[in-house]
Amino acid sequence: MNITLPDGSIKQVEQGATIADVAASIGAGLAKAAIGGKINCAYADLDTVVPEGATVEIITQKSPDARQILCHSCAHVLAEAVQILYPGVQIGYGPATEDGFYYDFALPSPLSTEDFPAIEAKMAEIIAKDEPFVREVVSREEAAGLFINQRLKVEHLHELDSDAEIIVRRHGDFIDLCNGPHIPSAGLIGAFKLMKVAGAYWKGDASREQLTRVYGTAFFKKKDLDEYLHNLEEAEKRDHRKLGRELGIYTMDPMAGVGLPLYLPKGARIIRTLQEWLRRDLYARGYEEVITPHIYNAEVWKTSGHYGYYHDNMYFFNINEGDADNPRYSEYGVKPMNCPGHVMLYKNDLHSYRDLPLRYFEFGTVYRHEMSGVVHGLLRARGFTQDDAHVFCTREQLVDEVLAILDLVDHIMSTFGFEYSAEISTRPEKSIGTDDMWEHATNVLKDACARHGLAYDINEGDGAFYGPKIDIKVKDAIGRTWQCSTVQVDFNLPERFGLTYRTEDNTEERPWMLHRAIFGSIERFLGILIEHYAGALPLWLAPVQVAVLPLADRHNDAAEELAATLRAAGGRVDVYAQNEPMRVKIAKAQSQRIPYMVVLGDKEIENGTISVRSRHEGDQGSWPVEKLVEIIADAAL
RNA sequence: GCCAGUGUGGCUCAACGGUAGAGCAACUGAUUUGUAAUCUGUGGGUUGCGGGUUCGAUUCCUGUCACUGGCUCCA
């Protein structure tokens, strides 16, 4: 029979061989490295006899999912240690995550990081024993007995299908309701570390009890753990909140309120540059820019449905339109989105099929009263600016419009060197619109992705209540993914606001409506860019492109003159005229990630040249002024 | 909103029951500097805010606000 090796090749082995035999037959090295086997996608132990005709994958430490298996096994070790140290603990779930694992516990008093050393020591003890993870199939009754003191496990047991095979996993005295896969024995865990504690709702449901979640990570080799920890430090250095302060991009003032960033001059420059850059592209692509109010009478939000659905997440206020003696209050709401404004603009005129598609865009600043626990620097703020657009079109035009948006997304994201992937979210349970509309719209989104050559995952039932959507996730320089662009079909607003157009046959038809954003939130996108580039924004976007560094006071005039020349070419230039040694000026400019530093001293002034230093490549030697002027002019929008 | 942790000068941190300290930054003065941080001096904090325990609180307790990490949420 055949087995599949990690490299994808096929190998024949004898009937009746166990997984361990199979591993051994591949060669001593691999056999030693084998950490588990997969039979028809169900994982089994090394002593499991491979059934006739089955395809077996021997997973080695180098296999892509090997570390996940290791991490999940380490979660068992964690639970085992906690159970020993805290008798009576209720254990929840303990899966592997992208970069480690966690295990949820219900304890009389929560754990803290101070408890980690003791738990880690106990885990190390368990790992040192190198006991096997033993898989057992038990009856439902046996399982109920085994977990008699584990109410969370019993709850899980009751939720399994009645005909499901009940698989438990023993390790030492620890037993878990879990079908794996696991490593053969705990000794393979070469290095692990508990990372943090957090609260987590049982089964992810905010209405249920909150458990203590312990996060950790594990590796086959100590070296890999060290590297992982080092990478975490590097990621921390890129944190946009830290760089945002160091680079003078934005600040938060507690007096202003939570989640309301204030942009410093450099931050404002970047945001305006991003906007201008996108604006030009959008004009070229047939979008028309509009401007709509920041507040609307509450009637608008009642019509749109936001008043009911999102009332607590919006900023509403009353204003006295009468006087002190005869007060007459009107209610207004600050916009959490720009759609109603664009819809009202559409309604400003009667529309013919000849007008369509109509593409309105706006850099619309919106305010959402996000829950206090979710605000996070620029990445999740309560006030932010969407690069928002709405497309009104016919049913037939829809697919080409989506395709055009995907093309735009591709252009924008590839400019920043982002790889990206797509997810299509389909009809949720609570939703409006007919089956036909949902089917057509969802197919249009799929079709557009296919035509664009964009692979997509399906998020079943994850669409908005008013229509399906495509979400674009970008991958940054250190491999993290961020959701940015979105394309959404909206069945709700055209209906609620009664939008129509005249067809060729002079009948009245409802237009189809698309929402789309490329950056999503411009400020959030800026935060992502800061982390992506570790603060070193590309030349065209850098708030300061050139730092002119006069060597001594007597060179300051020449420095100002050079700065003026560069500014005339569209450059953003700072002169470092303070009385400081060159190495200090260089250090300061460098820590500001300024793309070009120009040293100006007697030598340069005499020769009519400049000495240029690049932030990444260092000293570039002597340049004619024109060379830098040209580079700066090229980078101007 | 929930769970846990943390709040000390603009920033990064120390002191942890006995009158709050350093570095960076700021300001003085010196230095006029050649590719990642020169020397000198000065000023700056009712230790987030309120209450309690104590002879005495930055330190212990409590409430509150904010921040951090998660969870839930993200139209």
Describe the structure.
The structure is a single chain. The protein is α+β, with helices and mostly antiparallel strands and 637 residues long. It has four domains: 2-59, Ubiquitin-like (UB roll) (Roll); 66-235, Threonyl-trna Synthetase, Chain A, domain 2 (Threonyl-tRNA Synthetase, Chain A, domain 2), CATH 3.30.980; 267-294 and 335-530, 2-Layer Sandwich (BirA Bifunctional Protein, domain 2); 546-635, Anticodon-binding domain (Rossmann fold, 3-Layer(aba) Sandwich). Helix content is 34%, strand content 27%. The strands form eight sheets. It has an eight-stranded mixed β-sheet. A five-stranded mixed β-sheet has the order 2-1-5-3-4, covered by helices on one side. Strand 29 (546-550), helix 17 and strand 30 form a beta-alpha-beta unit. The longest helix has 20 residues, at 66-85. It is globular, with a radius of gyration of 31 Å. 36% of the residues are buried. The structure holds one RNA strand of 75 nucleotides.
Features:
27% strand; 637 residues; alpha+beta; BirA Bifunctional Protein, domain 2; 20 helices; five-stranded mixed sheet; 4 domains; RNA-binding; Threonyl-tRNA Synthetase, Chain A, domain 2; Ubiquitin-like (UB roll); globular
Helix content: 25-40%
CATH top level of the largest domain is: Alpha Beta
CATH topology of the largest domain: BirA Bifunctional Protein, domain 2
Please tell me what the overall shape is: globular
Percent strand: 25-35%
Biggest sheet: strand arrangement = 16-20-21-28-25-24-22-23
CATH superfamily of the largest domain: Bira Bifunctional Protein, Domain 2
CATH architecture of the largest domain: 2-Layer Sandwich
Class per helix and strand makeup:
alpha+beta
Number of domains: 4
